[in-house]
Amino acid sequence: MEYRQNLLAQDRRISTIKKIKLIISLCFLIPACAIFKKNPKLQYKAGHALLRLNHLDKAYYYFQRAVENNPQFFKAYSRLGDVMLLKGQTDGAIEFYDKAIAINPDHIDSCVNLAHTLLPGATYEKSLLLLHKFIKPAAYLEIGVQAGKSIAVVDKNTIAVGVDPEPKISYPITDNTKIFAVTSDKFFEDFDVKKELGSDTVDFSFIDGLHTFEQVLKDFINVEKYSRNDTVVCIHDCLPLNNHTSRSQEITSFWTGDVWKIVQVLKKYRADLNYATIAAPPSGLGLVTNLDPKSTILSDNFDKIISEFRHLDYNYGYKERLSAFNVIENDWEVIKEHIKSKSRKPSKAA
Fold first, then answer.
1. How many domains is the chain partitioned into structurally?
2. CATH number, domain with residue 22
3. Residue 141: enclosing H or E segment and its boundaries?
4. I want to staple 347 with a disulfide (CB 3.0 to 4.6 A). Which of 38, 73, 176, 292 is the partner?
5. Backbone angles phi, psi at 158, to 5 degrees
6. CB burial class (10 A; 0-12, 13-18, 19+) of residue 196?
7. Where are the beta strands (DSSP E) in 198-318?
């Protein structure tokens, strides 16, 4: 598991001086814990020092004592999850992260670690990079550029168009990349998309803009107008963590919005499309193929769809969501075969 390996690597990167300081601190913490047996803060500190030194069983003992003395100690539950993850016991890690989040839904460490435990392997950025290399798009369209991390991976020969009302580019981009500092609605209304792409159609598109269901639906409708049957469209954040982090309003630090509703819409209204969610951390990567630029089903039913799905709550369990969101394995060979087998079927009439 890649995320587990990263946690282990963090321990190996501890300097000798830091290790000595941790050992010295334990010389005080462990006796103190023996004296003050009901002090969860001391027990947590001892457990954390032991965890940093990779003494997992001893760390587990002190974190367990901490939650026994303070059942609301969400940070200790989260660290217990870390211990279980490092020991390769993912079910146990998930259980402890869930307990931490149940106490504090906004605990970012628990949310991030749980997301990576549920979706092991390379992140969605790696999937995007591999997709670029496989598709070799002549024209690429990205909605939601932010710092430019994902658009920076395009090939120098690809005409790339990025759309973001407030781009903060900090990654190097190619000379063939154009950034439009406008909303996606404004871009599709005011600009000649074909001219900017240097093509009548887009080969590959990534939607990662405003994290609301309504806007993602608009963006998908507009992107499909410039697509072909074999165009590939990716949508970020299609596999949320839980109810708290998947709402239209941002109430937690780890937040993916209600983008996930687009999956249910496409499954219900556009059965002609081929849809899958790549199980890429932290929140899934939607993969749509077999597009039909002539279809008006979504635009004709836009108001109806918004009304139908706006108040839908996310209530899927970890196993249930696998089928509900057409999840496929986060393995490049699986992803590649899915595209090859699904993207060249004859389109059905809208």
1. 2
2. 1.25.40.10
3. strand 139-143
4. 292
5. -80, 135
6. middle
7. 204-207, 232-236, 274-278, 285-289
